[in-house]
Amino acid sequence: MNILVTGGAGFIGSHFVLRHKERFPDDTIIVFDAMTYAADISFLDSVMDRIRFVKGDITDTTLVSGLIKQYDVGVIVNFAAETHVDRSIKNAIPFLHSNVLGVQSLIEVCKEHLNILFLHVSTDEVYGELKDGDPPCMVDTILRPSSPYSATKAAGDLLLLAAVRTFGIHARITRCTNNYGPHQAEEKFLPTVITHALKNEKVPIYGEGKNKRDWLYVTDHTDAIETVLEKGEDGNIYLIAADNEKQNIDVAKTVLDLLGKSRDCIEFVIDRPGHDWRYSIDASNTRALGWQPQVPFEEGLKKTVEWYKDKGLQETGWTASN
Length: 322
Ligand SMILES: NC(=O)c1ccc[n+]([C@@H]2O[C@H](COP(=O)([O-])OP(=O)(O)OC[C@H]3O[C@@H](n4cnc5c(N)ncnc54)[C@H](O)[C@@H]3O)[C@@H](O)[C@H]2O)c1
Known about the structure:
Blueprint: E1 2-6, H1 11-23, E2 28-33, E3 52-55, H2 61-71, E4 75-78, H3 85-90, H4 93-112, E5 117-123, H5 148-167, E6 170-176, E7 178-180, H6 189-198, E8 203-206, E9 212-217, H7 218-231, E10 237-240, E11 245-247, H8 248-259, E12 266-269, H9 284-287, H10 297-316
Parallel strand pairs: 1-2, 1-4, 2-3, 4-5, 5-6, 6-10, 7-9, 8-12
Antiparallel strand pairs: 9-11
The protein binds nicotinamide-adenine-dinucleotide.
Nicotinamide-adenine-dinucleotide binds at residues 6-7, 9-13, 33-36, 38-39, 57-59, 79-83, 98, 102, 121, 123, 153, 176, 178-179, 185.
């Protein structure tokens, strides 16, 4: 299989590339990434001599289409997106560019090459906020996105579903809960907690820290995507969840305990505007394909913390004594 992985130098995309190359060494992988602040090509160091890398923007339909022809690509997996909610609140335009126009551009590519299977990676945030006790969202639960980020992701999903119906392109959507693991940009919640604590700085937590997220280790997400590629059906949306809901404050406390840091460094800061209280989705349609999460939260969190500790050592020259 020849596979184009857009956004493959970012957090989840890089794990997908590493794991796919390990499982299917003979597949040709073309990583296509605009290399925004969230990307880091060194994530792919261990496979760089066995993949192709092209720097580019998914809105460049001609460039992407040319790569499809050049490498006889059969599958596109789209991780490329602007992903940080706080950035979207400050300026939504880059989110419209990558998450809406970018998806439409990939749809145009699929219209030209009707044999392509397009898997689009989306998020549970498209359903918007749930309160405590609300039942998990299902595939057809109404979309009520709260932030410019989630609204643009919902728009991309709807454009793709419309294209499946109108143009007969082969596409599937996955919507996943919160991911954690190595390679995530430092401005996101867990890396913020870890890196601030490592530097002995105050750890900022929005509001009272009681918002809940369902935490899934990143390779469990990429494994679910592989399962949907292998066994899913075109035109379907697959929900991927960990059933591991935790309040932000409890996640932060566990990280501080793992690092041997005092919980006194937690500092509550003014809440994010429109901050969703809770998300929850029912992943039974992905589990029915044979997928289930493999990495227990404590184990995944330890791996994540260790990765950021090692990264800090490389970048700052810290030693065990300081
Ligand atoms: N991180 C999560 O918890 C989570 C949960 C569910 C779904 N998702 C979805 O998974 C996907 C990947 O998320 P992530 O956390 O790895 O994001 P990320 O921000 O770490 O990586 C995004 C990657 O896309 C690239 N990119 C951005 N705009 C581009 C463009 N126009 N053209 C080409 N490349 C572009 C960036 O350079 C970066 O490498 C996103 O679609 C996101 O909505 C993420």
